[in-house]
Every structure is written in structure tokens, then in C-alpha cells.
Design a protein that fits this description.
With 245 residues, the chain is of the alpha/beta class. The chain is 37% helix and 10% strand. Strands 2-1-3-4 form a four-stranded parallel β-sheet, with helices on both faces. Strands 5-6 form a two-stranded antiparallel ribbon.
Length: 245
Amino acid sequence: MDLRDATWTDVRDCETDLAVVPVGSTEQHGPHAPLGTDVIAAEAVADAGIARVDREVVRAPAIPVGVAEEHRQFPGTMWVSDETFRNYVREAVESLAHHGFDRVVIVNGHGGNVDALREVGGRLTRDGDAYAVPFTWFEAVGEHSAEMGHGGPLETALLRHCEPDLIREDRMDEAQAGRADGWGEWVSYTNLAYDSAEFSENGVVGDPAAGDERRGEELLELAGDALARLLEAVAERDVSRPERR
């Protein structure tokens, strides 16, 4: 059930405690991919995972702005502080739990959200408000995960499969020319850079040309399958907290 399309009486009559919350970001993804790439990816993977389970799942509207100040030099990028983001996601999940949807998978499409979402899930769970776990799609695509950059092969491939009209194919040469090969500037296992503009001329990390539509189809299948397995595990898990040892 998609809450955006449902009525309150539909929700009242829905017999499930399982919900999915897509979370992304509104930020630069190079000259060829839209600012909403992370939201589009999170929603696509959420829907693919839900379609693969034989049980009712409530799908909340996506949260479109996240922790993304590292892209602040690129116009159109939006961000909030870690604290604001954590509070917003936590309270959004609490509102779902208020209606009985207290087993929640947060489907994430943005690397900058990862640490904050893990903290949110832990706080909600330990406080007994809901059982919530984050799932980041590009960590669940097997060997492809090693090539995750920014506006690079994975994100470009997924968009070419899900929303091909949003990729500016005529800007692909420009995207490749200004890209960085890896994320950051590393010395002694330490990243010296805080903002993406320090190491990428146009915000791209990785080769977007290496992400074709067929690869995007495979990525969506892998991520959707992984999410489906997680949804089943969350639905069946004993979520009572361990007693003091």
C-alpha cells in the first residue's frame, strides 16, 4: 500500500505492521544526471523489493533531502544537518509506528545518510518505539558495489533503466572529462577532502559510460531481491530486547 495514494480508511483496514521508508537526497550528480538521482533510486528499489514479497507492506512517501553538505559547491544541492535529518527520519518513523506499522525498513539511496540512519534505527529500536533498520541499495548489489562512485556507473545505469529520459546523454562526454576516479584524496588511510569539489571538477566520481541500461536492470534485480529478503527477515524477527546479562 502506497500511503500517497491511499485514504485514511484504507490505512485503517490494512493488516500489517511492516513499512518501508525511501530516503534519498537532492544533490548534484554531475552534468548528466538529475539532482533527484538518490530519491529516484531509493523509490525504485523500495518498489522492487515490495513487489517481491508475498505480504502487505506499507510504502511511505520518500524523504528527499538528506546529509549532503559535501556537495554544497554545486548549485541545486540541498542539505540539512545530521541532527535535523536524524530527528526528521526518527519522528517520521514514529508516526508510522503510532498507527501500528512498527517494523520499518529505511531504504537509502545516499551515502551521506548511512551513519545517521544507523543511529536512528538503533535509537528507535532501543527506545522501543519501533524496530527500524536501514538498507542502502548500492551496498547490496554484489561485486558491482566496488564501483560505486557518484553519478558514476551504478547510478547512471540504474537511471538508464528506470528513468532513461532523465539522463542527459548529450552531456556524457562532459561528465567523463571532469570526473574523478575515486572518492576523496587519501593519505595514510585518511581522506584529506571534505567536499566533493576538492577532487572532482564536475562532481562525478567513476565512469558513467560504464553504466548501461542492462546493467541497471541487473542492479535493480539484485537490490530488489536483497530488500525482499530483508523485509521477510524483519517481518519474522523476534524484536524483543535481550535482558540484562
